[in-house]
Amino acid sequence: MNLHKLKKTFFPALFFSLIGFNGISQKTKDFHSWAATPPMGWNSWDCFGPTVTEAEVKANADYMAQYLKPYGWDYIVVDIRWYVGNDKAHGYNEKDPDYVIDQYGRFMPAVNRFPSAAGGKGFKPLADYLHSKGLKFGIHIMRGIPVIAVKQNIPIKGTNLTARDIYSDKDQCSWLHDMYTIVPGKPGAQEYYNSLFEMYASWGLDFVKIDDLSSPIYFEGEIDMIRKAINRTGRKIVLSTSPGETPIAHADHVQKNANMWRTVGDFWDSWGQLKDHFEVFERWNKWRAYGAYPDGDMLPLGHIGIRAERGDPRMTAFTKEEQYTLMTLWSIFKSPLMFGGNLPDNDPFTLSLLTNKNVLKVLNESTNNKPLFTDKNKAAWIADEPKTGAKYLAVFNTADQKLITEEKAIWNSGLIAKNSSTKSVTLEIDIRGAKKLYLVVTDGGDKTDWDHADWIEPTLYNEKGATKLTDLKWVKATSGWQKVKINQSISGNTLTVNGIKYDNGIGVHANSIIEYDLPEGYTRFKTTVGLDEACIGQNTGATVKFLVFTENPSGPLPPANEKIAVDLKSIGFPDKCVITDLWSGKEVGEFSGEFAPVINRHGAGLYKIVKVSK
């Protein structure tokens, strides 16, 4: 939006004295006390991406106030690009974004999406609505100063300087180009962040999630400026840094300056990503402190993908067992809980996951949380119930079928990564006599984040001619997240490899297996494989292998359930104890020596253990 046009509608006098803003003179307690327990709330990203509207925010707030607030849920967070009037799902509109910005270079809410922001009111009316329901208001922002503010040379409030005096185009975000870096130490840099948070405080902000701040580059100088700016307002604004994984070399700094920080990239409804959290949480466990929480990212549960970046509208792809694992692991680790689904669409099961007082007590009150053991098929965590001598025990069955035995492949691309010299490979192989064809993509042995992979123009040949594989029906197809797409990338966009767009092909996300019955008489298979353009610029993932098989690449399924034994003496119970199942609330019985609950595959159990009085 043109700055001159905005001046006609922007109300410039946001007087902080009206809402109790006292500037530097007001003393604030240590900011860690503002999040004495892990923050619990709702975030718009998983269901609405960068397109959420005021009506949708209010609908989720109304649901939270009615059904979740009694259980401790109270944050409502508007995620990315609320300042763009014409953004879109499945990626961002960077072609012609309709920015809304004020006369001091600060983004304002898009009035077509947030009508109550009209007249320069900003988010104050929406925050007031949430506060009236006993809830707290949060927003997402990108670090830095808007590129449009630099181009228009907009002044910095309270100074004789402009945006051009404090910016650098170095280290600009690779996946969204709204902002430039603010250079720490430059005159006007701190003043810009001060003016930003003065405005947010005047709106009544309680929570801010700041993106492109911690990975792949950890911007320590900007975090320091943000910390000072928040403290200066005198308002208790909880600080969440994003994305992940935050470099662990900076763990001490982030713990001392933020209330929560991401431990992973964007987390979606993929079992592989969920299983990765066992290793990640073990790595970050020692860095949890009072008011400072390693953050496993949002909970992709309930109705997600409505207008999201990843995938189509769906109820979470996690099975019920996997949902129990997610909530159990996040609770025993004490990660913040930010629900990602559209709350009004919750079914009874989803609501039950969020309102179990026994489980939430573990999240909010347990101490000395730590892993007991972790291996490829099972894991367990323990924690203390303060002052009682009781312990909490979480047990997980993580056993997996070996999906892909690479040695069976008739063709293997080797590792293809975003830093590879080539992002694609063309193959033509003999399939004479084969009855089956399996197209497989693995995550290359690392995390599954952003592993968008394309099979371009896959074609079968015989003496009479050719048949496009996309014209045949597969037997079955799996993908790391979202359903396999025909003639689209996995994110629903045009198939794009090495900058070239293709009409024909298959879009998947690692790990993926597509199984076909081959018609008789075909002797050759030809295709080009490569990373889809959507993942190249991301800060995580984009590392895959493509493989072709003519026999089932997978190993046998593990048992449906297993006993997972825990030595009670080793965790402080040498004599009899009573064990209660916290998910059901039912007493399991008295035990001594060993406790070995039967846990379903990909499932979890959460228990309280109490000594039997002699």
Automatic annotation (TrEMBL):
EC assignment: 3.2.1.22
Catalytic activity: Hydrolysis of terminal, non-reducing alpha-D-galactose residues in alpha-D-galactosides, including galactose oligosaccharides, galactomannans and galactolipids
Keywords attached to this entry: Disulfide bond, Glycosidase, Hydrolase
Coiled-coil ranges from the UniProt annotation: none
SUPFAM superfamilies, sorted: (Trans)glycosidases, Galactose-binding domain-like
Highest taxon above the source species: Bacteria
Boundaries of every Glycosyl hydrolase family 98 putative carbohydrate-binding module domain copy: 463-586
GO MF terms held by the record: alpha-galactosidase activity
Protein family per UniProt: Belongs to the glycosyl hydrolase 27 family.
Protein name: Alpha-galactosidase
Organism: Flavobacterium gilvum
